[in-house]
Amino acid sequence: MKLIGPFKQIITLDHLPIRGKISDEDLEIITAGGILIRDKKILKVGHFETLKSENPDAEIENIKGEKIALPAFVDSHTHICFGGNRAGDFAMRNAGKSYLEIAENGGGIWSSVLHTRKASEEELLKTLLERIDFQMSLGIAAIEIKSGYGLDLENELKMLRIIKKAQEKTSVTLIPTCLSAHLKPKDFKGNHEDYLNFILSEILPKVKEENLAKRVDIFIEKSAFQPEESKNFLLRAKDLGFEITVHADQFTPGSSRIAVEVGAISADHLEAISDEDIDFLAKSETAATALPGASLGLGEPFAPARKLLNSGAILAIASDWNPGSAPMGNLIAQASVLATYQKLSTAEVLAAITFRAAKALNLQDRGILKPEMKADFAVFNTDNFQDILYKQGSLKAEFVYINGILTY
Ligand code: NIG
Ligand code: FE
Q1: How far is the CA of 11 from the centre of ligand 2 (A)?
Q2: Do 108 and 102 contact (CB within 8 A), yes or no?
Q3: Which one, out of 57, 64, 83, 311, has a CA that is 20 to 30 A from the CA of 41?
């Protein structure tokens, strides 16, 4: 048994609703707090001195200075396993080039596919671990990571196996997702339907056999996969036993509706969602994930997070860190900017990157500091939790505890 503290503030995120609006007055803040841990889990969160006298056997891990603790953050949507970079795309886009012109100049998702296919496993693993380390410096301890830059059997499996290898080297929880349906690869002989059938009959059985991912994603968009074929694909992936998540309503509306209809665990992007579909999504069990990093990378509008919350949605915020549309990778900076433009309370943002993001990944054991939860928490060198979003991503975590162990 171990007691960690004292903390100037512990923001537990306990006793908050899983969906809809939250005001900052609803946040539970324990001052002069301590976290009591046993077997990787939280036993109790409370006043440090009280916990100390109640548990004389507990080993004390003293926190010096005025620091705060809150649940470690969860980044529920990333593409951080990739080769090469797309700085050229970024510059061309800013200089006014269209998507088509960029693709014709060797850019776009396909260029990341070529770089990722070419990259050695060592190189991919090394850069992936570096990105995980950067995320840990922000206070993140669980990261979803998609395939989708392999787009053939060999390279999709290569990506997922590298994510599995990375998991052996980090205590950050990695949640792999198969995104073979990111795009129909240019070198595939056949139409969209043939490619989706190929994923279902060739890729997913192997993914299952090797236990490489439990989740399947698809990019539904004019330039990628169309609504009807996608729905059919998702229902069949579900039949194979996969959880579903969808890249939905990024540029054109309609696909978040499909996500809800197939019982997806989350619908992500939503920059172009219609008012009618906001309501449909908000009333469902499908989490609505805003990806402000993609809006910042592309110069597109932000997802209507305020409207989603007002309608009662389970709002998560994730980084979408990828080499093309969201190269920044700083979830805290992005969540803070989204809060400014969409008028979100601090409580709503913190919920969206902790227990609501955990819900979007079907992780029931984290995101709140309360008994029985995994003892994953981030410590910041400040006496006021509001500083985290106020500093817009420049305040890094001082420590990250994973399973109650000082990890970063
Ligand atoms: O989530 N929208 C599709 N996929 C990614 C972009 C990937 C890329 O551009 O490489 C996204 O934004
Ligand atoms: Fe994405």
Answers
A1: 29
A2: yes
A3: 64
Among protein residues, the one with the nearest Cα to ligand 1's atom 3 is 219
Q: Which residues pair with 87 in a beta bridge?
A: none
The domain made up of 2-71+368-406 is a member of CATH 1.10.10.10 = no
- CA-to-CA distance for 395 and 386, rounded, in angstroms? 11
What one-letter code names the amino acid at 246?
A: V
Q: How far is the CA of 28 from the centre of ligand 2 (A)?
A: 33
pLDDT at 87 over 90: yes
Within 13 Å, how many C-alpha atoms sit on residue 26's CB side? 15
Ligand 1 centre distance from Cα of residue 347 (Å):
28
Give the residue, out of 86, 151, 182, with the most ligand 1 atoms within 8 A of its beta carbon, to mutate for a pocket test. Answer: 182
112 CA closest ligand 1 atom index: 10
The secondary structure of residue 303, as a DSSP letter, is P
| Amino acid of residue 199 | I
385 CB contacts (<8 Å, ≥6 apart)? 9, 11, 29, 68, 70, 346, 350
Q: What is the pLDDT of residue 100?
A: 82
Q: Are 213 and 147 in contact (CB under 8 A)?
A: yes
Dihedral of CA 316/321/325/327: which sign?
positive
Would you kindly state where each structural domain of the chain is located, as residue ranges? 2-71+368-406, 74-360
Residue 51 pLDDT: 98
Distance in angstroms (rounded) separating the CA atoms of residues 320 and 327 = 9
User: pTM of the prediction?
Assistant: 0.98
User: Which one is the CATH code of 74-360: 3.20.20.140, 3.40.50.10490, 1.20.1510.10, 1.10.1200.30?
Assistant: 3.20.20.140
Residue 375 alpha carbon to ligand 2 centre in Å: 28
Which of 75, 76, 77, 79 should be mutated for ligand 1, with most atoms under 8 A from CB? 79
- pLDDT tens-digit readout, 225-274: 999 999 999 999 999 999 999 999 999 999 999 999 999 999 999 999 99
The alpha carbon of 326 and the centre of ligand 1 are apart by a number of angstroms equal to 8
CA 35, CA 212: separation in Å to the nearest integer? 34
Ligand 1, atom 9, lies closest to the CA of 324
The Cα 19–Cα 248 span in angstroms is 20
SS3 content of the chain, % helix, strand, coil (to 5): 40, 20, 40
Tokens of 237: 């992936």
